[in-house]
Specification:
It is a single chain. The chain contains ten helices and two strands, in the order ααββαααααααα. It is mainly alpha-helical. The chain has a two-stranded antiparallel sheet with strand order 1-2. Strand 1 and strand 2 (about 35-40) form a beta hairpin. Helix 2 (about 15-25) packs antiparallel against helix 3, helix 6 packs antiparallel against helix 8 (about 165-180) and helix 9 runs antiparallel to helix 10 (about 210-230). The longest helix is centred in the last third of the chain and has 22 residues, at about 210-230.
Length: about 230
């Protein structure tokens, strides 16, 4: 669990790259991971770098790394995400229909794009310190940390949780499309998919943001009622 936390939460991209350079220059090392198996450390580091590239939406770099590591399914998924992401374009924030298609792809592939399945295997909720029993922010950090260190640790975990959650990224895109499209067919489709993301996020004990999700659900539900009233 400590190794998973280090590779996926604590180290910056620069520190992870530096660690990779040191590992590549030395002898091959294996470590115990979840499930009682041993894994090559360099493989775990490269996999973590691929996951981080995907979180930056650099799907070409992520796909190339996965292909080299023999992770064929992930490599194929990166190609699909790259096609949808690159099709959006940049003019006026990008084509809204294509943004909806890309966000829907993210929402429909939870834990398959931004989540590091090589490190956690369902045990992440026991490693993250900033979660209370209901999955919200603000849990207990180690007593040895002072208040500033504790706050920095919890803020870093919050950024990490947001970055690894496909449905949260999808919700943000879909919510923006709905606002921009207004009470139109496109706006309604985006709002419905955004609401679906929020419902699923609310059931995800490792994510948190309970109050924020609840407020967004109320807002979108009211918005959809207004749309239906206008249509009638």
């Amino acid at each position: 669990m400590d190794l998973s936390y280090l590779l996926d939460v604590q180290l910056t991209d620069e520190e992870l790259q530096a660690a990779r350079a040191r590992l590549a220059a030395g002898p091959a090392l294996k470590v115990d991971v979840w499930g009682g198996r041993k894994e090559d450390v360099l493989h775990l580091v490269d996999y973590a770098l691929a996951v981080r590239a995907a979180r930056r939406e650099d799907y070409a770099a992520a796909g190339a790394l996965y292909a080299r590591l023999g992770a064929a399914q992930r490599a194929a998924r990166m190609k699909a995400a790259e096609r949808l992401h690159d099709a959006i374009g940049e003019a006026a924030g990008g084509d809204p229909e294509r943004r909806l298609a890309y966000a829907s792809f993210l929402a429909d592939h939870p834990a398959q794009l931004f989540f590091n399945d090589s490190l956690w295997e369902g045990f992440q909720r026991y490693a993250l310190l900033g979660q209370t029993r209901d999955g919200d922010e603000g849990g207990e950090a180690p007593a040895l940390l002072d208040e500033e260190q504790r706050r920095a640790l919890l803020e870093n975990e919050r950024r990490f949780q947001d970055a690894q959650e496909e449905r949260w990224r999808a919700f943000q895109i879909l919510d923006a499309v709905a606002r921009e499209a207004g009470h139109s067919a496109l706006g309604r489709r985006a709002a419905l998919k955004a609401l679906e993301c929020l419902v699923q996020l609310a059931d995800n004990s490792r994510f948190g943001r309970t109050a924020e999700i609840r407020a967004a659900r109320r807002r979108l539900t009211a918005w959809l009622r207004e749309t239906a009233a206008e249509a009638s």
